[in-house]
Amino acid sequence: MSSARPGPPGGLRVGSPGNAGGRGWGMNGSTRTARWPRARAGVAAALCGVALSGTTGCSPAERTLVAVLVDGSGTPHALLRPCDGGDRVRAPWLHGTPEADAPERQETREGTEEETGQETGAAGGREWSGWETRGTHPAADFPLFTPPAPWRAEIRGPRSALPDHSYELGFADPDDSYAYRALVTFDAAGLDRLADGEVLTRRGVMSRSAFEEAARRAC
User: Fold this and answer.
1) Is there a domain that residue 5 lies in?
2) Which of 48, 59, 106, 170 is the most buried (most CB within 10 A)?
């Protein structure tokens, strides 16, 4: 990754940038309150069960709850914002695969979700670099290629973005994996193009504060 910091690329730029330190649940770093009542857990799974009994299948809704930020030293960070009062995430993962394999890998992942509705980090048996976890974990902000030690993640390959690879960072709802999943895809070139205070999301490039607001609205 180059040390030079290019000017801002196109995309959304609303509000003021934040920093990569701390949990950063809100624009002022304060802890968020519950927005996804647990009484709802299982409702989406029931609806998906009905759909799966037919012919159409069911995939979790994708929400803007995860982002990647590059700090002043050039280190990328993961920002996770679950819709859960306990601030938990299910099976967070980072998978990098050669770009030619990315579409097929996505299709395999969706098939696995539809059949099991559980862990979402499996790469369908394909070779990948990055990391993946199982079960639920406390949400955190952390260096992208160094997940928190208590997560006991399986780590593969170099701890930096490889050229000609497509990366996918995501997690699922901690109580009901059919309810939603958070996902962002990117490559090394996209990280290099980020200006100070900008983040990459599934909706494109935006400011840190705009992402925090988008995450609140997504829940």
Assistant:
1) no
2) 170
